[in-house]
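Supplementary material to the annual report.
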Amino acid sequence: MGIKDLLKFVKPHVEPIHIKKYAGKRVGIDAYSWLHKGAYSCSMELTLNMEGDKKFQYLNYCMHRINLLRHYKITPVVVFDGMSIPCKATTDHDRTRRRNENRDLAMAKLKEGNARAAVDHFQRAVSITPAMAHQLIQILRSENIEFVVAPYEADAQLAYLSTLEAGKGGIVAVISEDSDLLAYGCPAVVFKMDRYGNGEEIVLNKVFESANRMPSFRNFDTELFTGMCVFAGCDFLPSVPGIGIVKAYTLVSKYRSLERALSILKFEKGNLMPEDYSKSFKEAVAVFQHALIYDARSKSLKQIKPLPEKLLQDLDTDLDFLGPEIPQSMAIAIAEGKLDPTTMEAFDHFPRSGVHLKPTIQNPTSDGLLQLEATILPTTDSCFTVISSQKSRKEIVEVTKQNPLMEESKYSNEATELEKLVRPLNAQPTEDNKMSATNIPLKVPDNNPFRKRKRNEVQLPDQAEIASEQVPVLTEIENSQMLYATPESQKSLDSKPINVVDAQGRAKTDKARRSNWQGPENKRGSILNFFSRV
DNA sequence: GCAAGGTCTAAAT
DNA sequence: TAGACCTTGC
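Predicted assembly:
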């Protein structure tokens, strides 16, 4: 949920940007926001743990975006959520309840034969499991992409990384959909990044300094901003009835002190306020400012900012609201993606998993983040292959179909039976997916926007589009391997002639148009625009 | 009239 | 999860 109505409220401070502005920089990614969006397209397959490769489509989504960043020479740092924080238990419980309700409704609709309505509920039922995150982590490892699993909230970890210099593992901005990042004081957040790299950016310092945009935050600092967010209602604490973002802003803006704002609120809304609101409020603000994060350099948990002694006395409580302390070995294993933070079981203990990590060959980079090597053990029941071009070698990451992608589902036995009800929605089973259902390895992710496609994979633009814009269409033909975009591969692609399809569908070679063609709506001849159509 | 709260819809492919 | 739109309450 994040902070209620915060993004709408700060809209005047939002700037449209393209992600390429961060070329050469390190940018943090809230992995769950991408996993969640990616899971939308395969929610039913995931919920029912169905046979076939479609349930891995969320990986395609994530890797497509990571490749997009790499294309623009941005170093992605992917951050995953870890354990559930105690004061978020109510929110988590509500979400689980809603998902379960939707899953039950989806199953009921499926049994009625109403697959379309079922899909609608499956989309609301989808939840991102640590096992799904682990699938992505394995690809990130094979691709040498930095990642870290936060001990608790990924947002807190991202906010912490934003405070560090690049040389120490720091990042300059975060890509997310969660307004909580702003409450954590994250200096630059890119929201709503689309598949071309367009997004909306909020830079907190600009918000505080802006003189001519309303609402003005000129008298605010990070603490007051966080306080406003908590007053407005957040995942850790619902707002007092009658208090929304506007009143929260007015309160903080007027009294310029959270303590005073709290007193006034108590005076005005005392009868509507829970007994312990003041304490809960201070704890919620403390979570945003002093959350537990993983420090990769010291390989230990620490607070984003140490809790001041005065606040400790004020709260007069233990610090479990920040999340219980855990042994260092466990914190490391979670951060490195080896331990499921919800069950505390090792990920590579999955039965018949083909992925085995060599813990002794960790290569901490200068920033201390993870760049692990995966040892690949070919197995006969693998269904998952990644070929990395970046390291000019072929790696096969094997994941067995028996991996518990999903939480143990009471529906898994029904899935096969129900698949035939679902079929009308999907294409009839092809030879390919028949094969994947019988343990033939399939390639995942087939998501590279820069991959050269075979002719029969190329989709031509519709006639109306051709007529109005004369869109150049890439029809390069090559026996393609799974290639991730690298600056080198991109350069080589750019230098080759391309085939352009004209309005009559005739193909003609046109090297010049790759760089010269300019269309409407910023559809310049960038390689991205080509691939948006391929 | 304004702000909060509730409901509906889109998202990805 | 957020935005749009509508309803409700002060």
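Residues 4-5, 37-43, 57-58, 60-61, 123, 195, 239, 241-247 of chain A lie near DNA strand B (CB under 10 Å from a C1').
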